[in-house]
Sequence to fold (337 residues):
Amino acid sequence: MRFKKTIVLALIVVFVSLPFVTYAADQKADLTSEQIYEKRMDLYKKVETLTGVTWEYLAAVDTYERGLRRALNNRPKEEGFISIYFNEDEWAGEFNPDKADTNPLSIQMFGGVGLDGDGDGVADRFNDEDVLYTLAHQIEQYGLNEEDFRIALWEKYKRDQSVRIIHGHALVYEKFGQLNLNDHAFPMPLNYNYSYNNTWGDRRGWGGRRIHEGTDIFAGYNVPIRATAYGRVEIKGWNKYGGWRIGIRDLDNIYHYYAHLSGFEKGIEEGSIVAPGDVIGYCGSSGYGKPGTQGKFPPHLHYGMYRDNGRIEWSFDPYPSLKQWERKAYQDRKKKK
Ligand SMILES: [Zn+2]
Fold:
């Protein structure tokens, strides 16, 4: 009996406190994605004015860390609009006996990085302005140009891949001048014949024991292949498995891998910034041998997706995303008619 009573009591406590806990999240849930982008941009611009660190750099780090929060399960979901994360030790100082310290002076004394960005006298690691200002200050110390930014990122993350991804995000924001860059496209135009099934995880014969890390979309030679997201071309060239292949990193830190191409679109190079729907190359059957090898299998696009979590990168099944982008493309085409 006593056990039952405890459960009932616990349930009451949960239900009574639920509205208070979810209140902050609800406020954000009521906003449209456009309004969320606006709020974020206001915060970036405010801190840019205070520190001289451009909004594109702030947005790039924030976007990278938003991707990390999605990829890691040991970080809480952000409460506000900014995703940049500092742990207690970083924020308050490793030897600070008060791990939840919000006093800018004692934080500084213990070597913590936390600063008061909104001028309320408190350095709160869950306050958007304080967090963003603290990040801007970390960047600002190394200077304000592109190379300084890369050095600051290296000092913060100590990982080439993280520097490359964040620098790429900044270049994407510089090119398009806005935060709303979440559109996607299906990699082939709908008016070509193509077919695909979910073949993720199938065994592959060539080149030793491997599993199939992607979806094969079969189509004729030279069907245009298009970027599926906003992003930056990270790799372009030959690979013995993938043949002529191209890799594009998007703003969710996801790497999109396009393999077995017959060739690349003119002007697409490593470092190119692309938008969804931009042609990047053409369907082919290259790969499984030395550079230029083709025809060892029917022409198709091998499409892979890889997620980065700040330490490692792993492949996940692209089939559901492809289905979703294809459905959306059909709906958009209907609307236009
Ligand atoms: Zn494949």
User: Anything to note?
Assistant: The pocket of zinc ion is lined by residues 212, 214, 216, 302 (CB under 6 Å). The chain has a mean pLDDT of 92.
